Amino acid sequence: MSIIIGIDHGYYAIKTAHCSFPAGLTSYGEHEPYTRQGLLEFGGCFFVCGSGRQPIQRDKTVNDNYYLLTLAAIARELDGKGMNRAKVHIAAGLPLTWVATQKEDFQKYLLQNECVDFTFRNKEYHVEFAGADIYPQGFAAAFYRLQDFKGINMLVDIGNGTMNIMYINNSRPLEKKCFTEKYGTHQCVLAVRESLLKELGTVVDDLVIEQVIRTGTADIGEKYLTVIRKAAGDYTKEIFHKLREREYNPELMRLYVVGGGGCMIQNFGEYDKSRVTIVRDICATAKGYEAMSVRKIQRNGGMLV
Q1: How far apart are CA 286 and CA 74, in angstroms?
Q2: CA-CA distance, 4 to 133, in Å (whole number)?
Q3: What is the torsional sign of CA 248, 251, 255, 261?
Q4: Which of 27, 44, 87, 104 gives 2 a disulfide partner, CB atoms 3.0 to 4.6 angstroms apart?
Q5: CB distance 152 to 85 below 8 Å
Q6: Helical H runs in 7-151?
């Protein structure tokens, strides 16, 4: 029997059904670093997981980073279950319009080893891989609430690097109306950074900008807060402009927003709250991947733990 573990491989963070951690990865080769926090030992080399982010790139298989982060995600999930040995079936995803061309390569990438032995945060793990399913990003976050999608609906998944758009009409996704825009929270941070430099001649740490985007405020001077809020508001207006280019009409359809970028809509957007639903659970996509794989395996008569 196998355990299904859903993993949302974001540029900013790696999410599972029960945890989230930054997607950064630092390699130390064969030299053990001084820190033990987030330390992964695999193949005789040491890596620290959870500091920084991954560069925005179309192909996530160009290096070993996402594979190593996958091992860390699996370890976190197994540790939460009190396990260190398991047969794992991975449920993951890709941006909507990339699935068709990259699904097979990403699946092979995740299953490059039949079994692995590694150490994560001072705990040894042995994992056998039973398989991997790759699903459309965004849609997975709505999978377990499809009954809510009556009539015409637009689903938008705003991540760190991309914004995925899909129509779901009467609980059915329309495959021919799926779009991916390179328009996420990272681009908002860049726009805010540029405004601060232009308006105040100041460079502000991205952590501060991200906090304002995420919460709407931060413990900084009012003039800086004003510029950040204005730039974030302008960027959010552009998001709605992008949606209108994809035929979004708030009077004719409902909008569902998932992904970490939903905070921009909530904090800076101008919208009818009765017709826009913002799902703030950042683990919703990983949970959706798991639910989709559970259904698939059970339909095929498979066994799960």
Answers
A1: 12
A2: 10
A3: positive
A4: 87
A5: no
A6: 65-80, 99-110, 139-142
